[in-house]
């Protein structure tokens, strides 16, 4: 906990003790909740759908602290909505403005109306569950969206700068597609090129721009990078191109290669894992580098054209071919790092 948070916590606790000793100055709501606003401000009161950021201490009326966001050094940010239960305090927040602090006493008996609920020993009958609250920020939903957009724009700019620096420092000559995918063919080939629906077998090693290897289908590369991949079969992964089995950057990049060719992709985050990232190694807005080899192309099976049947003239003998029955094999989804739903570490 930093020094400023420690002082704020101490002042709030001191205020709680001062008002708690004489039990005076408290207001009571219709639901039985008692409250005292320590630092009433003249600012605009919190409204429903506002997003508030606040610190709070949750404690018993015996001053036993159950939780403190001050100790966690992480305030809570939530939208103010319709109250669903007495402990959510949604009915109380509209009494506050930014920078207000307050003590709220919730009757413990109101939390255990259902007799099947187990009551903890630190909240006996007649006691209260108390919240010390300090409102740090109040924002409208539009302000939150604008703030998130500014943050996203900043991260996107940082990503573009990182990619440009990576390429300039190494004097690389990437080709850039309309989507932003960058690629270099490091081993050309004149063999078959896949089309959507074909199955391809691919060897790969995936890295972040700082050189951190997060996955590889090649055992030597995985061991060199110190990857722990128990049970991993080190062999080319199978991907049906155009089926959404892999990230967009792979979908596009694989169609640029021929069987037997090798390439390096730099995939922007919007064609990879975007603003969410994936696991510990792939942070939000992370461009990714893949060294890939298109080991084999298996052309999709062509379906037979439909037979056009001519109408039979009454009285004539039919020469229609006998009906046949067939079932196309079901293709299993590919496995491996660039799949959308999981990342192998």
Automatic annotation (TrEMBL):
InterPro entries: FKBP2/11, PPIase_dom_sf, PPIase_FKBP_dom. Residues 1-20 form the signal peptide. Keywords: Isomerase, Rotamase, Signal. Gene3D superfamilies: 3.10.50.40. Its EC number is 5.2.1.8. GO terms for molecular function: peptidyl-prolyl cis-trans isomerase activity. It is an enzyme of class 5 (isomerase). Residues 197-298 form the PPIase FKBP-type domain. It comes from the Bacteria. Residues 301-345 are annotated as: Disordered. Residues 302-311 have a biased composition (Low complexity). It catalyses: [protein]-peptidylproline (omega=180) = [protein]-peptidylproline (omega=0). PROSITE patterns: FKBP_PPIASE. PANTHER family: PEPTIDYLPROLYL ISOMERASE (PTHR45779:SF7). This is peptidylprolyl isomerase.
